[in-house]
Design goal:
It is a single chain. By secondary structure, this protein is mostly helical. The protein has one domain: Orthogonal Bundle (Fic-like fold), CATH 1.10.3290. Helices cover 58% and strands 4% of the residues. Strand 1 and strand 2 form a beta hairpin.
């Protein structure tokens, strides 16, 4: 059972993230759900890859633009013009380090002056009508952030064969959850967490499908935006410590993220099935900025095997 009224006023004490993850036991409904979602995703990928490379590239870039817009709208922030190829943030590599996390944070907030872990307190809550602050939960103590983030990176890089670490949907959801609850920055933690979700998902899809994608083929912020209350409630219901049992709530978080993926797979598959509309949309986008899309295609380095059209 989660905190009463979803309010946990206990401060986060430094603990082992490895032990926290080891305590997670996937429930049967999650095992069934992730199998079904993975099967639907395979069909979606087959449909996407039935198009020529330049269509796939344009589709992936525009899908990420929409993802970035939705992620910002979730935080009620102004969206800046997005050029994901400008600093090669996604095209250079899919590795992870403290430096890269800070670069992602700068990218998410469009501010090169940011990107350092916070030195003060952080909490998630709301202001009532009288101007009083009501706290749901606290992020890690400032002096523990570096330790937590070093542990986070180790878990991010864990390539063990357990389902929670090897399945793109589950591992990405886990990465996003841990990052948000550490809350290492003063602002932009949610947006950065969703970028980390994208990178981990892409990395694992590449590993499983022997592909070379540099931008995620699937995004979930648009679905999360519509279901934002459930998104917030799922996060608030989880204890971030070793003392409480949050297995049910963490499985509920996995289920929520899988539902968001299901919605996007359904939506995007319906769009891709309209081949004439897809080709026309691609042509219109390309005509507006041919240089950008040509560079994006080159940087993505899309290559195909003759028989199965795998990237």
């Amino acid at each position: 059972m989660g905190p009463v009224n979803r309010q946990n006023l206990e401060r986060v004490k430094l603990f082992s993230l490895e032990e926290y993850v080891k305590k997670i036991k996937l429930e049967s409904n999650i095992l069934e759900h992730v199998q079904d979602t993975s099967e639907q995703f395979d069909k979606y990928m087959e449909l996407l890859l039935s198009y020529p490379d330049y269509v796939v590239s344009t589709f992936l870039v525009e899908s990420f633009r929409n993802e970035f817009e939705s992620s910002n709208l979730m935080e009620n922030h102004i969206i800046h013009p997005l050029d994901i190829s400008a600093n090669n943030i996604f095209f250079n590599n899919l590795g992870m380090s403290n430096k890269r996390i800070k670069e992602l944070h700068q990218f998410a907030l469009d501010d090169e002056k940011l990107g350092e872990y916070r030195s003060g307190e952080a909490c998630v809550g709301y202001m009532d009508k009288l101007g009083n602050k009501n706290v749901y939960w606290y992020g890690a103590e400032a002096e523990d952030i570096q330790n937590f983030m070093n542990q986070f990176i180790e878990i991010y890089k864990d390539n063990s064969l357990s389902l929670i670490h090897s399945n793109p949907f589950l591992k990405s959801a886990l990465v996003s959850l841990l990052f948000v609850r550490i809350h290492p920055f003063g602002d932009g933690n949610g947006r950065t967490a969703r970028l980390l979700y994208e990178l981990k998902f892409t990395e694992l899809v590449n590993k499983i499908k022997s592909s070379r994608l540099r931008v995620s083929p699937l995004h979930i912020s648009a679905a999360m935006l519509i279901n934002q209350l459930t998104y917030v409630n799922c996060l608030d219901d989880i204890y971030f410590d070793l003392e409480h049992d949050s297995n049910y709530e963490i499985n509920r978080w996995f289920d929520f993220c899988l539902n968001m993926s299901d919605e996007q797979i359904y939506y995007l598959s319906n769009f891709l099935n309209q081949r004439e509309k897809v080709m026309m949309n691609t042509s219109l986008l390309y005509e507006k900025n041919p240089k950008f899309y040509d560079e994006s295609l080159e940087k993505m380095r899309l290559t195909r095997k003759k028989k199965n059209l795998s990237l």
